[in-house]
Amino acid sequence: MAPSKPTPRPRTAHRGDALASADGLDDGGNVAPPPLRRTGHGLSDLGRKRQTNEDAYFLDDALGLYVVADGMGGHAAGEVASQEAVETVYGMVKRGIAEVSELVDPLAEEDAQTACRLMESAVQGATYMVFSMAELDRGKSGMGTTISALLILGDYAITAQVGDSRIYRIQGETVEQLTEDHTLIAWQLKQGLITPQEAKRSPHRNVITRAVGNREYVQVDTGLVPLSPGDRLLLCSDGLHGYLRQADIAPIVALGGDKAVSRFIELANERGGKDNITAVLVEID
């Protein structure tokens, strides 16, 4: 059972299986297929260069919610922003989940839209919370955070994205980035203004075009992802994915659970560790 307040960089994990239907039957009277089980593993690390960890994460298998946030702002403001954002997302999803249906095939469009609205509203709530805190404390003016959040509902997951943390789906050897980076570099690449080679050398690599909390409102990207047994979902801050090659991901994920997230942290540190590093791996079985 989730605590009343989440631990964004938890030293304990919240584990729980998806709940089966009350009678174990589908509408046709047949035995219902077993529900997908989700198991999350998370780890965050200071890295080799930073004095404080401004990343935060949360995982709750019973609720099906997984979040990674990468804060920004001086005087520990980034740490405050990421933690408050994660707690707000958790609180709003926990309160609103009862109004959302499990997502199963054939998928009802209204149910999918309701689930996406819940995640969007949770991130908007986090945006308003962080912005309001900065307004009340001028020492935290301009603080903000990225958010990459994932909510599993039945046979689907809803993603919510602001900033440049990422969510990947791994199916065997296939790795797919589910979220879009909200950075100047990503926008320039999408518009064809620069080449991938130029992007690697650009002095604007760290410029974020969207963040939670630096304004009262932010545009939130949401997505609907069908899930299958064997899928793996990786949420991570740019302190990890900035050091990852696509070919690195599947072999490390194959290590499984805590071994995999520990190896991701080790790899980022081995390759420089210039930023805080956070990884959350969700295993679907």
Topology record:
Layout lengths: L37 E8 L9 E6 L4 E8 L4 H20 L12 H28 L7 E2 L1 E7 L2 E7 L3 E6 L2 E4 L6 H7 L5 H6 L19 E6 L5 E5 L1 H4 L4 H8 L3 H14 L6 E8 L1
Antiparallel strand pairs: 1-11, 2-3, 3-4, 3-5, 5-6, 6-9, 7-8, 7-10, 10-11
Overview of this structure, please?
The protein is an alpha+beta fold. It has a single domain (38-179, 209-284), classed as 4-Layer Sandwich (Phosphatase 2c, domain 1). It is built from 7 helices and 11 strands. The strands form 2 sheets. Strands 2, 3, 4, 5, 6 and 9 form a 6-stranded antiparallel beta sheet that branches. The chain has a 5-stranded antiparallel beta sheet with strand order 1-11-10-7-8. Helix 1 (77-96) runs antiparallel to helix 2. Mean pLDDT is 87; it is low at 1-29.
How many distinct beta strands?
11
Number of domains: 1
Tertiary shape: globular
Q: How far apart lie the N and C ends?
A: 20 Å
Q: Helical percent range?
A: 25-40%
The CATH topology is given as Phosphatase 2c, domain 1
CATH superfamily: PPM-type phosphatase domain
Low-confidence stretches: 1-29
What is the CATH architecture term? 4-Layer Sandwich
Question: What's the overall average pLDDT, rounded?
Answer: 87
